[in-house]
Amino acid sequence: MEKTKKAIISLGLIVLFMGLFFGPFISINNVQYRAIEVVFADFSNVFTYILLLVFVLLLTAIILQFFDKNKYVCYTLFIIFLALAVLLFFTPYFSSQVLGVSNKDVSMGAYSFVVALICIVLTCYYSQFIFINNQFTISDIVEIAMLVALSIILDLPVFKIKISANGGSISLAMLPIFIIALRKGFIRGFISGGIIYGLLDCMIDGYGIVTYPLDYLLGFGLLAIIGLFRKWIFNKDKKVTALGIIFLIVGILVGCACRTMASTLSGIFLYGLNFIDSLIYQLIYIGPSAGIVLVAMLVLYKPLLNINARYPSGGSSRTKSITPSDNS
Description:
Elements: H1 2-22, E1 24-28, E2 31-34, H2 35-38, H3 46-64, H4 71-89, H5 91-99, E3 106-108, H6 110-131, E4 136-137, H7 138-154, E5 161-162, E6 169-170, H8 174-184, H9 186-205, H10 212-221, H11 230-233, H12 242-271, H13 275-310, E7 321-322
Antiparallel strand pairs: 1-2, 1-3, 4-7, 5-6
């Protein structure tokens, strides 16, 4: 049964890949254009590579169907299909930049819209394999609540350096989010950072809910990528090792890079900046923030190892789990 499901999904993805490439990709003034006519239009334009990313991600998803369905494959496919849905829904904007036409004249092709919806369905499908092993215990909830509260405190005006009236500040607010992801893993880290902290911080900052998906949900949620390296950072020997330090640094840098890209896209879509200007603006405050958080995490590495050794993530067997079936 499982092999049949994988075969059906693989075949379906191959059909989607071919159809998306040669089918109606976008509509300009009610004229349909194929992806091959848009994606390869201008390789000097950075948005061309963003459009190419759609096909690279879809091809990666097809290849992953031939691997065993372990948690890491499910994590990767969950992220891929979520990213594909976001990229496809923003296809009209990217395409208008590639072709040099007004955003108002470009709309999403019918086939692209169908593929985006299928990606959302597949995102939900692979999420079931992730959340089934990521139940929250009482101790998880308490620990996450305290660390999220600490992030909010560290983002208060007294603890941060504001660089612009329109947003952006240098602070240690990312530090507790990284700790949550290290302790609880990627999924619970994403929920804690992107959904819980991100939503609270969005409301406190007051820039509008329109900024939430990119600046907050993805911006802070993707910091949880460090959780994918936790087994090397919190090693079996429970000691500070060179390999652990390397993965700690890589996890923080990759997480901050993902936040930078999410906020860069926000600057493009919401504030009309071009890619380079938006990227530079984000790096002005995320770069220094990443630097001080990295130093802080290196200092805290040994204490975190000791804490995780004494109080392993997930709590004891006596701790009650909170599952969707709990109605109390």
